[in-house]
Amino acid sequence: MRVTGRVGGLLALLCLVPLLLGADGERVVLCLGDSLTEGYGVEDDQAYPSVLERRLRDRGKTVRVINAGINGSTSASAVRRLRWQLKAESDLIVLALGGNDGLRGLDLAETKKNLSQAIELAKSHGVQVVLAGMQIPPNYGADYTREFRAMFPALAEEHDVVRIPFLLEGVAAQPELNLPDGIHPNAKGYERVVENVLAVVEPLL
Q1: 21-204, CATH topology level
Q2: Considering the entire predicted model, what is its pTM?
Q3: Could you list the active site residues?
């Protein structure tokens, strides 16, 4: 039987759906970040992307979470790394960069520009963006600390993307949830980090 017109177009679109989502309808979440994403100091399966994948699957989501965290990364690497990662299909990105910029006292205008370009790149590929908010200790003065914290809600509003208010909410400054360096979460701390991420990401899937 020959199929033409709107019916043929609909059938063609339906045939494309498995290719867009993966053979089994799998959704792909890309976690692009620094050591907080990579899972510095803990086992691979204890880093928040791995825990997030398990939690989502336990809740019935057909999902794969990619850990694209690199220790020491700043926002300057965001676009280059994202361009590489986007060679593979992703449905959603958790962008968690900028913390090292703040800890090093880098120019916040440059940090904001870098993150803006990464967000625009992801959106131009049809990838939904979740921006992870960061905070830093007041090492460089109250003004810098305040401007750094305010940068993330400003970016989220400017680009109309969803935001995790603070990736380390409930973990930062809690000795029992961090490694001895007081900066990076331990395995228990990452369980709390996942709660922060899950609350925002799960409704989008």
Answers
A1: Rossmann fold (3.40.50)
A2: 0.87
A3: 35, 181, 184
| Tokens of residue 27, six digits | 């959704």
- Helix 142-159, helix 108-124: angle, nearest 10: 20
Q: Among 90, 65, 26, 40, which Cα is nearest to 198's?
A: 65
Torsion of CA 130, 166, 42, 199, to 10 degrees: -60
Direct distance between the N- and C-terminal alpha carbons of the chain, in angstroms, rounded to an integer: 38
Q: In whole angstroms, give the CA distance from residue 180 to residue 24.
A: 42
Cα dihedral 77→79→81→87 (10° resolution) = -170
Residue 185 CB-half CA count within 13 A:
24
Contact of 77 with 86, CB cutoff 8 Å: no
Cβ 160 vs Cβ 189: under 8 Å: no
Tokens 């965001």 -> residue? 78
pLDDT score at 6 = 45
Tens digits of residue pLDDT in 54-89: 999 999 999 999 999 999 999 999 999 999 999 999
In order of 35, 107, 121, 190, 191, the CA distances from 169 in angstroms are 16, 24, 27, 11, 12
